[in-house]
Inverse folding.
């Protein structure tokens, strides 16, 4: 049994308030990652139909700054499901209320593990990629997982 990625795609919207920013009035990276993690968790839980926990955050890129008053749109979409884990690709965009221009501020890959009623890792349903981009992400997810596994095997550490 499979689900397509679009079934669990999640969009989260936030407004950058003064308490979300640094002294320069720019959105703090930690606050943005928190919002991205929430969107990714909703996506993982929607896909699996189970409570999911963040296992890792991989390759976070901050591309541009957002400022007080900007509207942030976060999109989370599953790339691949493994036995008990899922990789979720998240990207965030900002736009000023006064400008129609939307620009990329961050991208990251999150890994989640689905839990059963006793808090133990449990099997998740597979993903069926449909679009060319989904197929590319699906194949790349396995490469990223294997690379992380090899690094952990060599060093005994997981690099996030």
């Amino acid at each position: 049994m499979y689900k397509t990625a679009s079934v669990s795609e999640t969009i989260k919207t936030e407004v950058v308030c003064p308490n979300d920013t640094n002294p320069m009035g720019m959105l703090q990276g930690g606050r943005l990652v928190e919002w991205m993690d929430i969107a990714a968790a909703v996506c993982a839980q929607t896909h699996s139909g189970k409570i999911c926990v963040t296992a890792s955050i991989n390759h976070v890129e901050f591309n541009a700054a957002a400022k007080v008053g900007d509207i942030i749109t976060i999109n989370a979409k599953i790339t691949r499901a493994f036995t008990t884990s899922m990789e979720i690709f998240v990207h965030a965009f900002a736009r000023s209320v006064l400008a129609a221009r939307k620009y990329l501020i961050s991208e990251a890959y999150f890994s989640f593990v689905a839990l059963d009623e006793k808090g133990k890792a449990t099997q998740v349903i597979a993903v069926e990629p449909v679009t060319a981009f989904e197929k590319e992400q699906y194949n790349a997810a396995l490469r990223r997982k294997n690379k992380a596994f090899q690094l952990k095997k060599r060093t005994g550490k997981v690099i996030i």
About this structure: The helical segments are 5-8, 29-48, 132-155. The chain has a mean pLDDT of 93. The beta strands are 2-4, 10-15, 51-62, 71-81, 85-95, 102-115, 126-128.
